[in-house]
Design a protein that fits this description.
By secondary structure, the chain is an all-alpha fold. It is built from twelve helices and no strands. The longest helix is centred in the C-terminal third of the chain and has 33 residues, at 200-232. It is globular and about 50 Å long.
């Protein structure tokens, strides 16, 4: 088994990509075949039937939207809150482990395919050197760096077991921090979603402005931190 694992490690990126394609093909087929009418009803049916599987896969892709879904389904009783946190955390853990091993066993390919991201990789190395293990814990909350940091750590000689341990704890905290508030304020969020559906012509511009503001803020904050760290070094 260990020998097999060593052989497939260099192909971890391709295996991950194929798995994602197959998974979304499976979801699309089941969405189409759902025994209910209307896209909304089909989507809800799919979430209720394959909720934990979708949550795990969404966690691997680092999607907060999946955690929001889990929080709402936990609120309505279609998911167990604790199991949802556990599964989402495992998904987030698995995703970052894949990225870590892509960096560890595909160095030449990473340097070739991520030429345009060299500045971010350099920044990630500086962060790891300056802050050590805490950067593994907080990288999930750093917009634009969530894939880069695990890959960049894999490129170094950082201990794989230590990375896995911190990554697992971080993933469960990430899941709990997002899912629990959504579960607790479920009624208010569901009412807001109902309003957004009825008044989509107002909801869409508000969502675009709000989302754009968050992305702008995190980009600006990341650049400030990057500049400060480079000045100190």
């Amino acid at each position: 088994m260990k020998e097999l694992f060593r052989k497939i490690q260099p192909y971890s990126g391709k295996i991950f990509a194929v798995s994602v394609i197959l998974f979304f093909s499976f979801l699309a087929y089941n969405l189409y075949m759902a025994p209910v009418e209307g896209f909304d009803e089909k989507f809800v049916y799919l979430l209720k039937k394959y909720g934990y599987i979708i949550l795990f896969a969404w966690g691997m892709l680092e999607g907060e939207a999946g955690l929001v879904m889990a929080g709402l389904l936990s609120h309505t009783g279609d998911m167990n809150l604790y199991l949802a946190i556990f599964v989402a955390g495992l998904g987030g853990f698995a995703g970052d482990q894949v990225y870590f091993y892509i960096g560890r066993f595909n160095k030449a390919s990473v340097h070739r395919k991520f030429k345009g991201q060299r500045r971010k990789f350099a920044f990630a190395h500086i962060l790891l050197k300056k802050h050590g293990w805490p950067i593994i814990f907080v990288q999930r909350y750093m917009y634009g760096m969530r894939t880069i940091i695990p890959i960049s750590i894999g490129l170094t000689r950082y201990d794989a077991r230590m990375f896995a341990f911190i990554n697992l704890i971080s993933a469960w905290c990430w899941a709990a921090i997002t899912i629990v508030p959504i579960w607790y304020f479920g009624n208010e969020i569901l009412a807001l979603l109902h309003w957004a559906k009825e008044h989509w012509y107002l909801a869409i511009p508000i969502a675009v402005i709000f989302g754009g503001s968050i992305i702008y803020y995190f980009n600006k904050a990341t650049k400030k931190v990057e500049k400060r760290i480079k000045d100190e070094n």
